[in-house]
Design brief:
It is a single chain. About 10% of the residues have low confidence. This protein is about 35% helix and about 15% strand. It has about 400 residues and is α+β, with helices and mostly antiparallel strands.
């Protein structure tokens, strides 16, 4: 540094520092630097890893522009990056618990196998049980705690994250030996009425017998609990599948068409039975032994039911839910058409912006599905017909 690079008022001459940051540091990329010594833990999804990698790369640019960074420094930068990502996820979860899940974010030392847990100072640790609870969807695969308990005709094997006061388990049917998902709440719980409303939808689903909709197996009521039993998803959800298989850029048109047709067929069956899902999104499409099925009917409505609550988490998911769902209108099948259109965009691009869809036939159908005017959206039978005619 030399005196001519400073002024009496500003320190660095602005043009000089801008030149350094923009032209010299911007082209550098150290997003893979962590991989020499560390790996991400299982709870960091594709977007989480991407955010942390960019944070670490930015720190290396500023502190080690020559790229020479040791393991100890990388550990510190990873810890900082994961903490920042954890903080973002906690904030998103508080804004919209139905869409964003808090998680114990970790990274692993490749040499020793040690796993490092990262928490935010202002947030109580999830490990203590004091932090925010994580919601879980019906039938959704999740990590959990092993248990040994019998509940009526079911052996409870693993406690999963359910959210609120509900308890969720991977269970085994004693008569059949089949693995199932069991969700229960205590009869005196504040969540009992919510689960009872949910179960009325699932009672309709039991009569559906559609291969593209979550199978409802059983209802159990006793003096202590009200419980719902469904099939168990062993293959994860569609959001993670697209992120991983498509590397964040979407699936091939052929695979997108197959999955899109499956979801459209599921909606067709629901609408024929006067059920509106109201929260169709990739996270609510689960893989059951290779078959994609629509799940999570917690906020579904009958056609005659009026939406009265004014909270986002009861109205669907921002980015996928139809705009009118946030305005207190009567439930209508056109809302599901809008969500299907957004999901088709995600299948093709890994995003929800229709302008990113490169195929004109797809874009034409999707634009009509996501019309701001519900009356201009096609009915589900027409969507299925047009999907079938799209070349791959």
């Amino acid at each position: 540094l030399s005196p001519e690079l400073f002024t009496r008022h500003l320190g660095f001459i602005a043009d000089y520092i801008a030149e350094i940051f923009h032209n010299e540091l911007r082209p550098l990329n150290f997003t893979d630097a962590y991989d020499r010594f560390f790996a991400f833990g299982p709870n960091l999804g594709h977007r989480d890893r991407k955010a942390v990698m960019r944070t670490v790369s930015g720190l290396i640019k500023l502190i080690h522009p020559d790229g020479e960074v040791g393991k100890e420094e990388l550990h510190e930068y990873l810890e900082f990056g994961v903490e920042m990502r954890r903080r973002v996820k906690e904030q998103l979860h508080r804004i919209n618990p139905s869409e964003f899940v808090t998680a114990d974010l970790t990274f692993i030392d490749k040499e020793t196998g040690d796993e490092f847990h990262v928490n935010c100072p202002e947030i109580r640790s999830l490990d203590t049980g004091d932090g925010p609870e994580k919601p879980g969807g019906s039938g959704r695969q999740s990590q959990g705690t092993n248990v040994k308990e019998t509940f009526h005709n079911y052996d409870l094997l693993t406690m999963l994250d359910a959210g609120g006061m509900a308890e969720a388990y991977l269970a085994r049917s004693k008569p059949t030996g089949r693995s199932v998902f069991l969700k229960r709440v205590r009869t005196k719980s504040a969540d009992k009425d919510a689960l009872e409303r949910e179960m009325r939808i699932y009672e309709k689903l039991m009569r559906l017998h559609n291969t593209h909709v979550l199978e409802v197996i059983d209802f159990v009521r006793d003096d202590d609990y009200v419980a719902l039993v469904t099939e168990y998803a062993d293959g994860g959800d569609l959001e993670n599948y697209v992120d991983e298989r498509g590397d964040g850029r979407g699936l091939t048109p052929a695979e997108a068409k197959d999955i899109g047709t499956t979801l459209a067929s599921a909606l067709c069956a629901l609408h024929e039975h006067e059920i509106i899902h109201r929260d169709l999104k990739p996270r609510n499409v689960l893989n059951f032994s290779g078959d994609w099925k629509l799940a999570d009917f917690g906020i579904s409505k009958n056609l005659s039911r009026l939406i009265t609550q004014k909270t986002f988490q009861q109205h669907g998911t921002l980015g996928y839910a139809a705009p009118e769902q946030f305005e207190g209108v009567a439930a209508h099948p056109s809302a599901d058409i809008y969500s299907l259109g957004k999901t088709l965009v995600f299948l093709l691009t890994g995003r929800t912006d229709v302008d990113l869809v490169p195929y004109s036939t797809w874009r034409s159908l999707i634009q009509r599905c996501i019309s701001l005017n519900p009356n201009e959206r096609p009915i589900i039978d027409k969507v299925i017909e047009e999907l079938d005619s799209i070349p791959t």
